[in-house]
Every structure is written in structure tokens, then in C-alpha cells.
TrEMBL record:
Residue intervals of the HTH luxR-type domain: 823-888
Positions in coiled-coil regions: none
Protein name per UniProt: LuxR C-terminal-related transcriptional regulator
Keyword ATP-binding: yes
Stored SUPFAM superfamilies: C-terminal effector domain of the bipartite response regulators (SSF46894), P-loop containing nucleoside triphosphate hydrolases (SSF52540)
Keywords: ATP-binding, Nucleotide-binding
Organism: Longivirga aurantiaca
Amino acid sequence: MGTTTVLTWPLVGRTADLERIVSALADDSVRVVHLVGDAGTGKSRLAEEALRGAELDGYPVAHVAASEAAAVVPLSALSPLLPSGTSPALDPGAVLDSVVDHVRELGDGARVVVHVDDIDQLDVVSADLLARLWRDGLVAVVATQRTGTATPGVLMTEQRRGGVLRIDLGDLPRPSASSLLHHVLRGPVSAGAEHALWDVAQGNPLYLRELVTSAVLADRLAPVDGVWVLDGALDVSGGLAGLVAERIGHLDADERDLVELLALCAPLGVDELAAHARLDVLESLEAGGVIRVSADRRRQLVTLAHPVHVQVLRGSLPRLKARRLLLDQVARTEAHGSRRRDDVLRVAAWRLDATGTADPRLLVAGAELARTSHDYLQVERLARAALLLEPDAVASTLLGEALYEQGRFDEADETLASAAAALGDDQASGDAVRIALMHGIVLFFGLGRSEAALDRLGAASSAVAGAGLTDDEAAERTAVLESMRALLLTQGGRSREALDALPAEPPSDPVMRAVHARAHAWAHYRTGEAEAAAESALAAWEAGIREDAPAGLLHPAGDLMVAALAHLELGRPEEARALAAKGRDVAIAQGVPFQAAWLAWAVATVDLVMGYAEDAEAAFRELAATAGRGGFAQVEHLAALGLTECRALTGDAAGAHAWFDRAEALPAAAPAFAPATVMARAWLASADGDTRQAAALLHDAGLELAARDELREAAVLLDEAVMFGDRDAAEALLVVIDRVPTPVGRARRLRAQALLTGAPSDLLAAAEGFAGCGFVHSAATMAARAAQVLRADGDPRAAAAAEAQARAWADLSPGIQVEGLGSTAGAALLTPREREISSLVARGRSSKEVATDLVLSVRTIDNHLANVYAKLGIAGRAQLAPALGLVDAATAVPAARSGRDR
């Protein structure tokens, strides 16, 4: 990938600020626009963009770069405003009048717009001259200044007079940073890569540019399947290190020591620091924006102001100095008795960082605490260090869990098998049961060895039963193992069996209650009780994220996956997608990529089921790229199946076959997800024109699932067979669907009835039923069929209304094929971008709102609209909706989905 990819960085996220500057330049009462912000926030870039716009509008412009070097010679910084042949070394008084006359001549009746970079470094004479020019109305100044530097007196005076518009620039908000990445890299960026870049850059455009440039040149950030994926850690050396060195280079020895300590040990309390550091040092660093003080309950915590500073300082600290700083902090913490709960973790990590070792009991205790916050990298580090010193079952279990959560399944399997072997005949103890539970998870979810996982749990149950434990001990450990077995059964496509195996009461161990709750949720979801599934899953999620909650064997984000799918079945698609996206983002932020991949699959699945083909395809492509790079073959398999269906839905048979072949080359996911393969095969047959074969595949698989009480999946497959016109499937679905009492189930019932009766009223009722659940493709398909029947029945007016409604739903997913629904002649001529913009405007969005959403200028939007009007032969936006085939688009149709936020 060439460096040209990262050379063009558009101005993103500053539209409102730019408009304020443009308005100010047209207002004679505003003499100075004062842009203030930290280094790297884009002050100079914004000023340059403003001057470019001013020049296009006919204003004369000039650029002035103030600096310490230029300030040595008065007026040298203002060279761009000096008359030809004038030397800054001349007597300033002799130069003054000639400069005023020269600037007046440059302006020719208009104000000259002058960009002054770093106005705080302007020499006094230049500042005074500039002030005279703006007071005389000869110039309008756009000045930049770094936060924490002294504002020139002339600027303060003008501000008191009301002639200054001050704009404080912060870092970019996350959506703007995401848009910027997309524009720079000219393609989608994976959620994991986006999070990593945000986590380090925190929206600082300069830091973001350096990170992306470095990562692309090092091939750590590269396109995979058309999606930019990050492989490895971001590099904060090189250009970034130089920027940080410049930022903190002025610090004295005491300030430097304190900043380096924070880089190693933050957050630290103000009281902790005040006990050994001067308060004036802290105050100076806070005033200079080097550190940040925030409230945490009754404590005030101190951190460095930016994550980049932390990483650069850690990487540049000499080893022995870092050791001294860490051990000094350990001694101070231990001298106060390590009173806080997290002190054990902090001391364990600090000792390990300083010396490479620590007391093994301290390391294990620290790993347990790190696990509570799902910091699995730290768990691995501490547990591995403890095991180097002595064997320990708890440390082995922690290490196995940490490896699993990072997607390193073979290592986890080896670690846990060795730990179990080390226990010998003691296979019924609490430690042995915990190892067996974790090993079952690794075997089933990580390695896809479902029977081996169930056998592992069965062996542990047998050991407990024959160990001569007290009744209470045996009952508790059996309940724990049976809860895990039930969860695995749900994922093995044996949900009814799971419900029978699930203990009536959850285990008393709070760690295992989460497993019981998740097994309960999955089993009820798959057997058609979505309401119970959603309630159970959300309760488990809430319990799992409480601060005082011990960490379970399964990351709590997984509860949001089943909650999202249950909400989808309940006809709450927006809530479903939000829950899945929330779980994905939490898992990414906490460094749990395997769980994040599953939640990403849920996000894509919600979009696909609803019929938003473009959004679904983008999400599945990202998942295929990241899961493939992460080694999550089962999830990559499901992503490839999803892409098979997406390509078939848009009429691309060759693309559908290519993705299905990729899926077939990968290990299959758990048996509960086998219906995804059936669905992909059916859509593949449909893309090849064999809808009879498609319906037969779905019908047969649906009946088999119904016989096993996998009612939700049975209903899905039978409903798809109904979509392909299978009347027998409709009859079978009407039998099954009464046991799936959800809004989506009712819509499926209406579709089955409509196929059997053929009545347009039934077809339209089914369309409305699916539309009410947010399933736009199904709604469009049923309305289009109703239009065909009405037209054949000789009712063209009703047919036109039905077709227009179908088109309104189909328009929400550009490119998707809806049988019997053609496009309007004019609309067919539109480019994808014109279609996107005109659809948004037809729904009542203003040009400014569309420009903000799509990160374009208002002028660009209006130019596209002018082309649209010409192609459609209409006079303006009031006629857009009918010309595009939309009916009551502003009120009856949900907002467009394409390009929405993650």
C-alpha cells in the first residue's frame, strides 16, 4: 500500500466552526477570529481552510507565521504585509505608514484576511501594527494560539471591546474521527482498528495522522477483503515521540519525574502525590495541560492529559530509572497498608514491571482482580509470572481463561489440560471443577469440539458424584456443571434437552449464576420464548457489569448477543442492533476479540434479517476480514454465509458462490447455527434461478428443527420457504408459529395465510406486519406481490398505491432485488450518491443536515440535487418523493440506514 493513501487529510468535524469563521469575516464588527486549542487539534488547518474560502469569495489574503526566531527582529513576521523593498530592520516608525498604505491598496476597498499562526509569539511591534490595521478596518485576522500560552495584550484589549470571536477547539468527537479515517483510507475501517486508533489518539487530528501513517507504512494497518484491519500494536515512536518531546521538553527535573511516574503508575490520587511531590508542581502541570485531575467518588485522580504521552514516556524511560520510580511507588503504597481494593493489583503489576518477578500469591491475587475488570492481557501476564515460580491451579485456570478470551484456543486447551493432569486424582475439588468448566468452554466455543466438551463436563460430574462430598458440596458443584452443560446443549442445537438439564435453581456461586442465566436465555430464545429470553439475558448483563460483581467464566457482553436476537424476534430491530453494537464495542474496548466477533455477527445478522443489504454486507465483510485475521474460523464461516445471502439478495450469483465456497472451506460453527448454512444454500439456489430447490431445502430443514423443538429456527426456515412460494411450508408454518408468540411470528403467520389465500388484502396485511417489525425487505416483497395481484384483478389505482409503498420500503436498501418491483425510469439514471442524497432530502432532510451526515459541503449537496432534478425532470425537492416512488416518505418511512453510525 503506497504512502499516497495517507497524504490527503480532509477537514472533517469542523463544519460548524468553519461556518462561524466565514460569517465573522463578513461582519465588519469582528476584527479577529481567535482559534485556541491544544497542539494537534487542527487550529492552523482550520484557519487555512477559512482563508482558502475567503480567497474564493474574492478577499485578498495573507499568511503570517509568528515564531520565537522571528520575534527577535521586530516586524519580520509581518513580511507578507510589508511593501516591496521594505526591510523589517528599518526603524518601525518609518515603516508604519507605508505598511498601512500598502495594505489599504491590497484590499482595494475590502478587508485583507490575514492568518496569523501562533499569535502569542508575535513580537510587540508587529502586534501593535496588526492591531492598528484591524482597528482601521483594513484587515480581518484569523489567529491561532496554543492553549496555556499568554494571549497578547492587544488581543485582550480588542476582546474587551467586543471585536474578537474566540473559538476553542477541542479534539474531534468520535463520529468525526471515524469519518476522517474512512475518508483518508478511502474505505471502511474495522471496529477494532477504529477503537485502537481512538484509544490512543483520542480524536487529536495530528496524533491520528501520525498513528495512521506509521501503521500503514509498517503494514500493521492494511486492507483485508476491502476492510482496513489493524494487526498488532500501534507504534507511538518516530514522529509522535518527537511531538510529545516538544510538548513536555520545557519541564524541569521535578516536573519530569512526576510526569514519568504518572506514565508508569497512573491513575494516582492527589493525596498520594501530595505526600511526596510539591503542590506547586502539580498545579503548574495542570495549568499547562500536561496532567488532568478528575473526580472518582471521594478521590481526586491524576493522569497524564493524553494517552499518547503515556505510551511515548513509557517507551523512552531508561530501565533503571523506571525501576526506581516503580519501587518507590510500591514502597509508598505498602507503607499505607495497601488499603484500597485495587492496591493489590497495582502493587503486583508494579513489582513485576520493576523486577520481573513478585511473590506468587501476590501475582495470583492481582490476576484475580484484573479478571474482575476483564483486563485479560494483565491476567495473562500476572498468572504466567506466578506459574513460573510454582504450580498453581488457580493461576492455571486464570491463564487458560485469559488465553481463551484473546482467541488463543490451542494454548488455552494445553494450559487447562496440563492443569487438570497436575491435580491427579483430585478431580472433584473446587479447583478441579473450575478447570473443567473453563476447559469445556474452550473445547466447545473455541475449538468446535462439542462432544469432547460435553464429555469433559460429564467426567467432572462423575468425579463429583463419587468423591464422598457433603450433600451441599455435591449439590452445588453438580448445579454448576449442569448449568454449563445446559448452555453447551443450547449451542449444540439441543435446547429442549438443555431446559430439562438446567437446574431449577441457579447455583449459589455468583460466578456461575451468569452461566445459568445465559443457558436459560438461549434455550428460551431457540424454543420460541423470546420475551423470557430477553428478560433473562438483560438481567444477567446488568448483574455482570455491577462494580461489585465478580467476573464470571463468560464475558457479560455475550448476554447482549442473545438479548439482541430476542429483541429482533420481538419486533424491536433498532433496540436489537443497539444492544448488539453495545456488546461488540464493550468487548473491543476490554480486549476480548473473540466475543467482539460474535457480537459483530449479531449486528450484521440484524441488518440482514431486516433487509438492509448494504449495511449487512459491509458488516459481514468487516467480520470476515477481522475474524479471519484473528483466527476465529467459526465466526468467519458464519460471515461468509451471510455474505452469500447478501450477494444473492442483490442478484450477484457469482459473488454468492464465491463466498459460499469460502464458507465451505472453513470449520462450521456450533450445531445451533447450522440453519445459517441451509439459508445460504437456499439463497444460492435462488440466485441460480432454482427457487423450487431453495424452498425444498428450507422446508425439509424447518420440519427437522420443529421436530426437535428448535421452534424459532424452524419458523425462520419455513417462513423463507413460504417466501419462495412453498404452500406445504405455509401449512407447516401455521402449525409451528402458534408456539412462537412474537410480533415477528404473527407477521410470519400472515405471510403463510397470504400464500394460501392469494388475496391482496392478506398480502398487504403481511406487508404491514413485517413493516411494523422493521423487516423492510419482507414488507417490500409482500407489497409488490399485492400490486401484481391487484393489477391482474383490474384495479390499477390500488396496484399503483401498493407498488409505491413497496418501493418506499425497498428504497431503504439500495441494490436489493424485490421480485415484481422495477425502478422508475428517471431514478434508474441516478448515480448511487445521487440516489442516497435525493432519498434523504425526500424524507425532509435539509441540505445542511445531509451535508453533515455524509461529511460533504452544502454546495456539493446542492450540486448533486440539481443533477437529480434534471434527470427526473422535476422542479425541486417538493416533487422528489413521488419521482423516486416514495409515498409519504417524510413521515411513513424510517430514516435511511446506509452510512449510519456504528
